Amino acid sequence: MYIDLHSPYLIAAPDYRESSLGIQVLHRLCHMINERGGRAWMVGCTVNPDWNAPALTQETYEQVISSGKSWIAVYPEVTTGNPFSAPVTVRYMLNREGVIMQNAIEASADDLFFWYRPEFADKEPNPNILGIECYDLSLFQDDQPVKDKDFLYLNRIPESALDLSGQPENITILSMRNPLSLRDLAMLLKRGRVLYTYESSGTCLLAMLCGCPVVSLSAPGYEHYALNEQSLQDIGGAGFGYSDSPEALDEIRAGLPLVRDVVLAKRRLLDTQFEHFLSLTQAKAQQHDDVKERTSFSHWLSHRTLPTTVTAETRLLHVILCPNAQVSAIDASVASLTRQGVDPHTILLVAPEPGYRAKTMDIRAVTGDSWVSAVRQLAETEAFDWLHCIDAGVEYTAASIGMMRNMLSQAGECQAIYTDEAVRADGGEITPIRKPDFNLDLFLASPHRYLRRIWFRRESWLSAGQFNPEFSQAFEFDVLIDYLLQWGTGCIGHIADITTLVPASVFDSPASLEEAQILQRYLQHRGFSQAQAGQQKNLTWRISYPQPEHEKVSILLDAGDDPALLIRCVESLINNTEWQNKEILLAVAENASSAMIDLIKQMQEVMPLTVIVCGVEQNFASRMNLLEQNVTGDFILLLDLHTLFVLKNWLTTLLSHVIRPEVGSAGPKFITTDQRLLSAGMIAGADGWVGHVGQGEPWQTEGELSRYQCEQNYTVLSSNCLLVKREAWQRVGGLSVEYDDQHVIDIILPLKLKRAGYLAVWTPFSVVVSDNTRLLEKICVSESTQRQTLLAEMPEFFTDDPAYNRYLSLQRPLFRHGPFITNGSEDFSSTRANVLLLKNGEDCEYSKRIADLLQNLSTDNAICLKRDYSDLTVPEILRLVPNIVVLTHAPDKALSARLAAVSQIIPLRIYALADSGGPGNNTQDQVSVVTHWLTWSAEREAQLSKRKRPVSCLPVLLGREWVAQARSTLTERRRVLCIPEALSVKEREFISRIIAATHTRVDWIILGAWPAAWLPMVAETVRWRGERMSPEQLHQLQADIAIIFRLNSDQNRFKDDYQAVQLAACGIGILASDVPSLQNDLPFRRLNADPQVWQNEIANANSHVVSQREINAFIYHRESIPEVVRRLFM
């Protein structure tokens, strides 16, 4: 049988040693996998050099986890949890859980289980057995006629717990405390008359193979270690007994040859078991990979659904540039159009391969030197509305053409539009390229990455002069420069949707000579005749604008209350700034300390320093505005005292940008004293307030598409060191004195300048050092009313910063895809409720219920659903524009504050599940933010109504997958299901009596965790697999009836009938307690708490299966959504 062993195995085990058969089994498993052609390693242990079971190295481990594919961890039962954080986990049960280490394995529902022996599986139905053994049968055999040794095996049980007075004299103790080699152990066991043991062990089997009878003993308190009847059955019913009488030993000895036959038979079975192990584990890993693939960016890109109705008759012309392109590349581009219904007549191939079948496909082909004129002719005859050019090999993404037709028809004043893209690496990996809105300095620095594959409006393309045939690659950039010079940046628009899939070789292919000519032409037309464009090693451009000449800079400082900090900053400023035409203005509080006053007097003696004394009541903004009224320069530098200077040209570089007419401010790169990035620009809305780009990375890091090394325009820059044009300062009124929150003050001026139409330039070529810890703080909007006020005033910058992209994450690390990209349609519908489901607590049955209900509504297009976790910040929630937020638990204080802040900006309904942690223990503020509580309990609804809480009782609605399937033929014995996990101690005691009284007449099936005392009386114990309470698992149990026993107690007061409906929907008869929480319209048997009544019903009564017609009222149907659900969500 061929099995594709694509996923590797990491096996946890102690150091290899011959004295432990369990350890040998784990190492042997690794050997077997590798010998079979797979890849397996032992983790954190020494290995057997004679086996193909290598130790995992750090290099190999990094290769495994970085492969992007699932890998499999194999843990013995002594391992708790998933310490390797493996995608796929296998539990190899070499003993019962907790027997050796007294640990709980804490398995997840997705873990695969394999048992070394059937007895270790308790009552698991059809357990997966993997009976690996590596006994040397030529060594362990009965070839020693002299039997003169008596043995006692001791390992886990201390000698102090045993009474050894009745043991034979001169007995030899075999113990792991004195381990023997296998050869020495075999020599001893061959001489054995008898081996006594209080515990099951592989050594016992070795003794049997050597002709030594085994006598099983039991010690009080350690009975679970002992050999038992199941152990006897596992080795063919021979090999050991419970008495050491001569007759009993003779009987055991007579059956010893059967043990060897059993071992040989198991070896023949092992091949099948091992194949089953490989098949199941590889299938599980493949399943994990499939799920990962379905949630991957590449899958979303190829399977996304966009509005298919094309409401606009926008005519498009697609030009495919084919010089030197392979036929396969041309085919890929053409196919991506034709499968979207594009008319071949609207495709123009430029210089395709001579043998390409353009004519047979009704596609027009032109030569490389005539294509521009061909496009011009089509434009002059109004044959198209918008023009788009791509290189052969570039593909249009799914549904992109219809979407672009609609979007282009609404382009307004835009004459050219660029879109987001995706790049396919040579190895096939696809990466999204999310672009900012038009960013003049960034796009000039990297035109080949941002200004290609542009959609051009026909009329403006004609009037701007069309493409210049002299430019074979940068012709779009050349035309866009004309657009910028004629109409300004407002003529170029951005659609944040991925429309093209670009090969990496095409995307990152600059046309350096052409770009240099175009940039120089742009600078000449702008009047910067002395400016120069120089290409850097990362293939981006640095434009060196003309050096300023006589401009005066006025530096505004707030003296603060730390003289040492003030003098440190000023000395660094004076000593490390080459720009000489500057003045320093210092705001000093009227109650400044004598030390501060003395220092300022000393400073005035050695430097020109204007000191303004400010009132104690004046905040920072008013102090800076007061300083501005006394400046004599045309440029103002806001400077924080924590700033130090290392490059003398830092101010000159900033000034060269601010003298540009369109620029209102410029800021430097901030680094730390240990040369890490502190801020390479700022993103409004990130990190809960404003995020510093690149923070914590090495200061010369390139960043996303080399952005950390490119000059660019940001919406906000830090006022810790910000150069501002005084004219712009005065136009916006300077700093806003109504704010004194330092985190608001830091960004308020750049935001006001942005609204006034000024550009803010960030440059990596001006570098300053700062140890201001405020720049490291993660700030939450809800912690400050002033932040909330500013956010409410300018929400568009915090939810959709033009310097960023709405589909990039607002949490660190920045410039990575946000969490919602794989969840289907990107945009909320305006006609459906936009519902945001926030998981704000542990998973529980109630959170799954509401998720299932909302998913059903979303699948039927009744709502538009998004899911996330409760750590979403205020800007992140606002970005999603929800109408309704549903919480899986009652909100904590922090979440309540964030939701309250959101509610101040957009109308918002906030629902919370009362059943999974309701309003009982929460403060008034936490409770009041919830506009409506949801419950499935009529009793809880009544309770909350009495407390004047708005509440709705949701109906039990199962998904359509719960519709009962055909049942197999009933077995001879009734199969009774019990799910004991939620039972109280008294309820378990009641059911224990019922099981004890009925287990001889019915087969009990226990689902989930089970009390150990029940094990001898039940037929099957079944672990949860995958999703709890799934119809698939319930059907597999083949239960005839299920019992739901509840006492009428406070513990059960707020429970409901959801589980009863689930069981009934699967065609299982129900016996339930006659209590209020289990009342509904289904006709199953309800019993009082009389043990005799329950025993009789379980053993004798009919199954009480609910009909499909009766259960249908509890199944979700689009046509019959209950009114309460419609009122809440639709």
From TrEMBL:
For this protein, the record's SUPFAM superfamilies field holds: Nucleotide-diphospho-sugar transferases
Q: Name one Pfam family in it.
A: Glycos_transf_2
Glycosyltransferase 2-like domain segment(s) = 564-671
Show the InterPro entries listed in the entry.
Answer: Glyco_trans_2-like, Nucleotide-diphossugar_trans
PANTHER family under this entry?
RHAMNOSYLTRANSFERASE WBBL (PTHR43179)
Q: What is this protein called?
A: Glycosyltransferase 2-like domain-containing protein
Species of origin: Enterobacter cloacae
Q: What is the lineage of its organism?
A: Bacteria, Pseudomonadati, Pseudomonadota, Gammaproteobacteria, Enterobacterales
